[in-house]
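for the recovery benchmark. tokens below, seq after
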């Protein structure tokens, strides 16, 4: 076992030491009830937008408006409700470099932890996201950054209260499907779990989060802490984890997630907890050390099968996503019904008979039981697979599947930065 490992928390600030030298603090999990309630609200809003379009689908002379009804519904929903689809965009990485990266909607994020910035430390609740690489939090006077009556409002960074703050001033800008997220870069001390202190960390202060839409306003997180590689980092910023390695404040260049079923999770930084899993670890080499991207030999679910493809293991995505046409085939095969959000619902009575989803990687099959492919609450069942099309661009082959929290809950998941591999093991 790696001796000096630290576990990050969402809302508790005191570490609980145990006699194995690990520090454990739970990460908070959003309940299935809250997930379903948020989904129903978005679906209701989409239907209202659809009805509005239908009522105005012809002009006063009865001439149909340009474009299909479905296109108008999508445009109305995105424009009036700030819906943020998952997409990809070419962004500036600094030093004249640009890169195609996946831009995600965090409205379904389920796990949150705490990070502290500045001296004395200011606390923020963040999504620890292996699918991105920057740290960003809202600044004071941030626009579209939540309201006090929703989850108590967002925590906002106040540079005037930090004695270690350094100005950078370069622009931070991400173009989401529904708008921009803008701010600027700064430099300060970042603290994880009280014991990991990263100095001179470049991070972004967001001054307008409008591009994240309602999902951010309603979400229980203030910002994002990316755990991907430097190839995804905007503004040429070294990632928090890479700086922690370089500054010698973690014992090993490894971190691990234990998300668990129906309980809060743990993120261990600087090593992994061999008491959290049983049996052997299956190590899967990365096919592209930018995302935590792996080769997938095959995918099977009931009558559905797919051959070799690629995917990323992503803690910042709650569902499992794949190409829309493939997810539709799977949904049809199990009787799931589509909605305007690009997701699927399924009759809860069918859940006990759902077939398992199998990903084969490095010659080993990893299974997600059918019952775990559903988020259920109050008689409503959401199918936990969603279509997302990521086209190759500029000669770059993009990953086609995202193995999000639904997958990671079934396996203790280890991210080995130095050896560029992902480890999966059966959790205890």
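predicted aa per position
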């Amino acid at each position: 076992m790696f001796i000096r490992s630290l576990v990050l928390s969402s809302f508790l600030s005191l570490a609980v030491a145990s006699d194995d030298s690990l520090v454990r603090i739970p990460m908070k999990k959003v309940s299935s009830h809250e997930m379903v309630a948020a989904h129903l609200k978005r679906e209701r809003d989409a239907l209202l937008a659809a009805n509005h379009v239908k009522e105005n689908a012809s002009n006063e002379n009865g001439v149909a408006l340009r474009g299909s009804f479905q296109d108008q519904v999508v445009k109305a929903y995105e424009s009036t409700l700030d819906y943020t689809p998952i997409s990809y965009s070419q962004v500036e990485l600094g030093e004249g470099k640009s890169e195609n990266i996946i831009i995600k909607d965090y409205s379904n994020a389920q796990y949150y932890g705490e990070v502290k910035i500045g001296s004395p430390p200011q606390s923020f609740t963040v999504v620890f996201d292996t699918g991105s690489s920057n740290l960003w939090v809202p600044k004071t006077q941030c626009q579209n950054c939540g309201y006090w009556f929703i989850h108590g409002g967002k925590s906002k960074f106040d540079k005037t209260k930090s004695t270690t703050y350094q100005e950078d001033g370069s622009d931070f800008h991400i173009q989401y499907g529904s708008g921009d997220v803008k701010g600027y870069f700064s430099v300060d001390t970042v603290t994880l779990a009280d014991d990991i202190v990263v100095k001179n960390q470049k991070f972004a202060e967001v001054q307008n989060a409008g591009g994240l839409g309602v999902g951010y306003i309603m979400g229980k997180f203030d910002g994002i802490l990316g755990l991907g590689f430097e190839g995804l980092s905007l503004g040429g910023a070294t990632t928090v984890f890479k700086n922690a390695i370089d500054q010698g404040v973690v014992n090993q260049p490894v971190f691990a997630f234990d998300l668990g079923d129906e309980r809060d999770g743990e993120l261990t930084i600087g090593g992994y907890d061999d008491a959290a899993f049983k049996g052997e670890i299956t190590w899967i080499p990365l096919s592209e050390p930018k995302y935590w991207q792996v080769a997938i030999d095959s995918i099977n679910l009931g009558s559905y099968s797919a051959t070799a493809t690629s995917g990323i293991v992503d803690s910042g995505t709650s569902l499992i996503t794949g190409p829309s046409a493939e997810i539709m085939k799977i949904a049809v095969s199990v009787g799931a019904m589509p909605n305007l959000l690009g997701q699927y619902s399924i009759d809860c009575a069918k859940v006990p008979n759902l077939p398992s989803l199998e990903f084969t990687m490095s010659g080993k099959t990893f299974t997600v039981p059918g019952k775990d492919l559903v988020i259920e609450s109050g008689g409503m069942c959401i199918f936990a697979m969603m279509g997302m099309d990521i086209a190759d661009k500029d000669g770059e082959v993009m990953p086609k599947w995202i193995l999000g929290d639904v997958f990671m809950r079934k396996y203790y998941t280890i991210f080995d930065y130095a050896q560029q591999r992902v480890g999966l093991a059966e959790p205890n």
